[in-house]
Amino acid sequence: MLAVIRIILLALAIGVISIISIISCLVRPFHRNNVHFAAGMMGSLHKLLGLKIEIRIPEEVKHLGSVVYIANHQNNFDIFTIANAVQPGTVSVGKKSLKWIPFFGQMYWLTGNILIDRKNTSKAMGTIALTAEKIKEKRLSVWLFPEGTRSYGRGLLPFKTGAFRTAALAGVPVVPICSSNQHGSIKLNRWNNGKIIIEFLPPVEVLVKTKEEIRALANQVRENMANKLEEISTQAGSHYPTYQGK
Fold first, then answer.
1. Which of 104, 111, 121, 135 is spaced 20 to 30 Å from 41 by Cα?
2. Please, which residues bridge with residue 80 across strands?
3. CA 199 from chain center: how many Å?
4. Strand partners, 142
5. CA dihedral of residues 150, 169, 137, 200 (deg, nearest 10)
6. CA–CA gap between residue 14 and residue 11 (Å, rounded)
7. Residue 83, SS3?
8. Which residues have a Cβ under 8 Å from the Cβ of 160 and sit 6 or more positions away?
9. pLDDT digits (tens, 9 = 90+) for 49-99
10. What b/e readout covers 42-68, taking b as 16+ CB neighbours within 10 angstroms?
11. How far apart are CA 143 and CA 175, in angstroms?
């Protein structure tokens, strides 16, 4: 019964938040803080799931300018958990088809997020250059999920290099963000679902240029994130799954 009530309340809340965000965007379309505003409201719904969120941001990250944020992507609960970590002046990059989702899709587009066609490789490559230009021209930060898809309990998946190439083109650092395990730890029929820890890692300068160097850097950052994910998941009373190569 509790699960049904939660699902209904979450659905209603998402609809209301989407409409509020759309109206806000009509007042200030594509403003650099629209995504932060909408993400903050979506993130507040973690309370409906019986979760506590702890966000850890080192001092060296708080005062950075534009960056490329990269985060682990677990499941559909991300919109209520890691959304709380979205900083002012940040937009995300998502698939073009998102804009057709009623209310939520229009909100996602109007808040200023960057939409790409993942089925078109040449356009996706052009999006890296376009994203880098927006970072430089509008002093934005960009949020990306380097795994490319939700992991659904398979551990931290191999990274794609687009985020690192974007950072290299824009001349900005990469800031990894780790969110502790939530796969199997959130039960809709349970009142208290514990705590999710979200920790920002120190910035990583992308000074490399060749494909091989960027791939090596992506692999190193992924390893660092995997270690941190296990650490904070243990602290939160869970365990982050180990990637098994599937």
1. 135
2. none
3. 12
4. 68, 91
5. 50
6. 5
7. helix
8. 146, 147, 148, 218
9. 999 999 999 998 988 889 999 999 999 999 999 999 999 999 998 888 777
10. bbebbeebbbebeeeeeeebeeeebbb
11. 9
